[in-house]
Amino acid sequence: MNPAEPLLTIVIPCYNEEDVFLETARQLTAVLNDLAEEKLISASSKLLFVDDGSTDRTWSLIVMESTKNQFVKGIKLARNSGHQKALLAGLDIAQQKSDCVISIDADLQDDISVIREFIEKYREGYEIVYGVRRSRQTDTFFKRTSAVCFYRLMNRLGIPLIHNHADYRLMNKRALKELSRFNESNLFLRGIIPLIGFRSTKVFYDRKERQAGETKYPLKKMLSFALHGLTSFSVAPIRFLTFVGIFLFLFSGIAGVYALVQKIFGTTNAGWASLIISIWFLGGLQLIGIGIIGEYIGTIFTEVKSRPKYAIDIDLYTKPLRRHHQEKPRNKNLS
Ligand code: UDP
Ligand code: MG
């Protein structure tokens, strides 16, 4: 049974977020304060900021804030590992001390007033609560349409994505434990979490504009994220290629017979046009095919290496104000 006053940790990945950090910390602190005062969550609930190798003042702001604000904790990754990995690092660490964890972006585009609803659902016994955007009016036209196409494609391929849900969600300890058993390096959390199963529900909200700073997901990162999502969840594109190949093979057989018949009974011309068309067509098709297969090989390549997904440089959450590598002096047991 869920505890009456669960210890909540809100995990917030931050990459060069010096413009929004203080405001975000202020607003989330207010939320935690209110919830703790109403005894909906434990008073030792925390905000865990994960600095994803920022090159600006983000980390020093986190450290400064953590000395003033009892709710604020931080971990610093050794380098920029990307949003999904930063988030996972935060979830892994937060899970050790929390009954439930909420993940949210640092720019507060997701409405923090529904955190209360998250907690209510959790107390009703739900293990995963998805925050779902009611509308995407504040996103650019491009981002909106590309997102719709992406979700449609993924659903067609049978990947159970929750429509209009990004990484704003609550998970309880049990769900987080299950999540840590997924060992993939190409993380696509919003695809993996529905696979966990468990009792889940949705909470709806309106997505706002970014508070300050600019998006850390430029087009290139967005495309690569979408491609990873696809190739780490479905082999349908490879299968599709096989079918195209079979179809073309049969078709070229028929065309061959036709050409032969023409040759024997009719007059053939130089055939330059058909030749050049097929060269381009087949060449293009082959390149697409090789590209798609390459994507999968790339995915397999990174998976088999199973490199660690992130490295934590400093951890102020479980080990306050101490550096990892200073804990154990080297050669202590050697003599
Ligand atoms: N982020 C991160 N590492 C990165 C890129 C982004 O931790 O390499 C964080 C970023 O600080 C923010 C969240 O991921 O908290 C989502 O990024 P952003 O709001 O820029 O994406 P958008 O909302 O534009 O898709
Ligand atoms: Mg954002």
TrEMBL record:
It comes from the Bacteria. Residues 9-179 form the Glycosyltransferase 2-like domain. Signal peptide: none annotated. Keywords: Glycosyltransferase, Membrane, Transferase, Transmembrane, Transmembrane helix. It holds the Pfam family Glycos_transf_2. The chain crosses the membrane at residues 240-260, 272-297. This is Glycosyltransferase family 2 protein. It comes from Bacillus changyiensis.
